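Chain A, query sequence.
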Amino acid sequence: MSRAKVFPAEAKSILTKTGGYLSAFTHTLQPYKGCEFSCAYCYVRALPVQRMSPERRPWSNWIAPKTNAVALLADEARRGRLEHARIFFSSATDPYTPIERRLKLTRGCLEVMREYPPAALVLQTRSPLVLRDLQLLRAIPRMVVNITVTTDDENIRRALEPDSPAIHKRIEALAALKSAGIRTQATLSPLLPCNAERLADMLDPVIDRVIVDDFFEGDGAGGRRSRQAIETLTELGYAAWTQPGYADQTLRCLREKLGAARVVYSQTGFNDIDWVQADV
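Chain A, predicted structure.
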């Protein structure tokens, strides 16, 4: 059960202009502030959104639904602002954080984009709840679903992602999405300690591509925003997995097992907008 206290609020806007790490996208879309998944490596906990958290609650202990998110997006759509938009949904929360099961803000936004498709859409989550919206996703062109799979080891997952869905549930979600004809990417973001060959075997039948990221490229601050995860892994005896270049060996293994074209790296991989928009 989630520990998060809910702070509903109306937002002034729903599409945020982007750049920097997600330079190929024009906007991010966040139907929630905060998150109920308590991932130790989450870079957002070091951003101003957390420092301004309601009642100064710690990360993953609060969630602020944007109650008018769907209405705001529908207004943008009617004004023609989605037609050329390349949207990353979401970069600072999980669009399927557990409260979405009840509030359906993400679902409502997808319904808008079914009627007014953007130029490109990437939906980023770690939750099998995404399968609830399978038929909606199939109706949106030029879209990809990314599911975060950081490791093949449940002990590592429990240590760093204690409130997140089990790895096998994410693999099953990827399989269902791919079977439905939806393009899928597994985002190893950040890569955590794993057996690379076993992880490759798990991913091979259920993904179109894999994006490998690490603490130093992925958190936008050279690893400084990933301090809690790095400390936890060091305490668990995985200090070698916290050093610059630690992902290189796994990256090579995945490319050998899955094919170089199916395994991309970090910012370059996330920003391959031509692949997202390609006709399939």
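The longest helix spans residues 167-179. The mean pLDDT is 92.
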